[in-house]
Amino acid sequence: MQPNLSAMIDVIFLLLIYFVVTANFTPDEGVLTAKLPQGTGAPAQDLAPPQRPLNIVLSPAGETECRIAIQGYPQAPAGFTELASLLVQLQYDPELDLKSGAFKPDSPVVIRPEAGVRWQHVANAFNAAVRARYTNINFAQVSQ
Amino acid sequence: MPSQIFHRGPTKPQMNITPLIDVVVLLIIFFMLVNNIISEQSVQMIVPQLDEPITHELDDAGRIIVNIAPADYAHRERADNPLLFDGEARFIRVGLQTFAADDLEGVTAALIDARSAYPDAEVVLRSDGALYYGVVQPVMGAITRAGIDKINLVAYMPERGATTVQIGE
């Protein structure tokens, strides 16, 4: 009184092999919500004087690396973690006892990469600005 | 003298597995087809790897994925430094439609179509980390021209268990 299990085991093995082969071992991807580059043609019609933007300039260094600079500030952050803490220092928010900086959390932040900068660095700069709690971040048109 | 029947003993009952196998094979075929459709939508690439990322998971709501595909590669080639790679785009894929890397009008038109069919859908920009900004920015411009002002940039999620540092608090 024993059922013949070999056929079932065959099938289960096939299934197992199939799922092992098709399994996706890459890390999970997530998203950062962003605003798109503006100013594609039409002239600006500002009624109020524009706020001074905080420009983050990225220029390529070597094959894969990039140099980070904040326009008008002499310190050049070495990495994106440092950029994030520098962006916090430049912020003025009395509620959080940040009084040294000149930029409010809703001041415009413009990320200005040169054409040859890798996308990862651009996304990293954006991530740093969001982590420093800026809310109005834009990407600039390509500068050569 | 024992009879012939008694000598052989009673016949053993056996389970009939044929329907089980039928169903399992159907299941295998089903999953293979579905898997092909899913991988068709998402192009193989290495998305940006961020320092202390604050990425969040995609909502299940409707979304239009704009893929900017890098050149063909094998995973081993890019294992050491994913950024040491060709920075030019191979093609752009909006949903299931594929466009040449310089066919920005096509991308805009496809997005306008998709938005009129699904007005609430969010646009997701999925680009390889090694592509040049000079390649990605025109695509962002094409998305803007479709009347969209907000997009989601794809990057890797923070690793599970890693602590994220909150800045400014």
Our estimate of the beta-strand percent of chain B is: 15-25%
Read across the widest sheet of chain A, the strand sequence of neighbours is: 3-2-4-5
Euclidean distance between termini CA atoms of chain B: 97 Å
Computed CA radius of gyration of chain B, to the nearest angstrom = 26 Å
Query: Biggest interface and which pair forms it?
Result: A-B, 58 and 66 residues
What percentage of the residues of chain A does DSSP assign to strands (E)?
15-25%
Q: Helix fraction of chain B?
A: 25-40%
Please describe what this structure looks like.
The complex is a heterodimer of chains A (144) and B (169). Chain A is of the alpha/beta class. Chain A has three helices and five strands, in the order H-E-E-E-H-E-H-E. Chain A has a domain at 54-139: Nucleotidyltransferase, domain 5 (2-Layer Sandwich). Helix content of chain A is 28%, strand content 22%. Chain A has a four-stranded mixed beta sheet with strand order 3-2-4-5, covered by helices on one side. The radius of gyration of chain A is 25 Å and the shape is elongated. With 169 residues, chain B is of the alpha/beta class. Chain B has a domain at 63-153: 2-Layer Sandwich (Nucleotidyltransferase, domain 5). Chain B has helices at residues 4-8, 18-41, 104-117, 133-145; strands at residues 63-69, 91-94, 97-100, 122-127, 150-156. In chain B, helix 4 (133-145) links the parallel strand 4 (122-127) and strand 5 (150-156). In chain B, helix 3 packs across helix 4 (133-145). At the A-B interface, helix 1, strand 1, helix 2 and helix 3 of A face helix 2, strand 4, helix 4 and strand 5 of B. Strand 1 of chain A pairs antiparallel with strand 5 of chain B.
